[in-house]
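In the current project phase, the collection of sequences with tokenised folds has grown. A representative record is quoted in full directly below:
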Amino acid sequence: MPDPYVFAVIPVMAALLASFLAPDASPKNIASAWYAGIFQVFTFAFQMVMMLVMGYALASAPVIAARLARIASIPKNAISAISRRARLHASYAGTAMAVAMGESVANMLQPFWALPILAIAGIRMRRDMGFMVITFFNLLLVFGASLLLLVPLA
């Protein structure tokens, strides 16, 4: 396998070459735009590093680590995990929908999908984050109610 650094450099080089196709593209304009944008990326990267460090610290805490180990030890293999899902009478569709709903709600708080759009439009993330937090809580209520409808009343 190639070094992960290669997977980071190739898209940067592709974007550099594609930037020469833009109107008024000169090496000076491209370099100054990259220099101005790199500090915004540093802010985002610092947030991601903090999220990883805090997640690791939380998972390393003795109380949480013991609980995670206990939960992870329940299924012994993939077949066991699938059969446990079946014993809980969870439908495949319901499980898939719950995962999709959880993912879409979480995307409102960590909106990776919006970063290219905001960069193209020249909008700062701070301006839209309030709307995303409001959307997060609304989706949490709507999707939470939807998940209650998925649970069979037996």
Remarks:
- The CA atoms of residues 67 and 131 lie 35 Å apart.
- The mean pLDDT is 77.
- The radius of gyration is 22 Å.
- Residues 27-60 form the longest helix (34 residues).
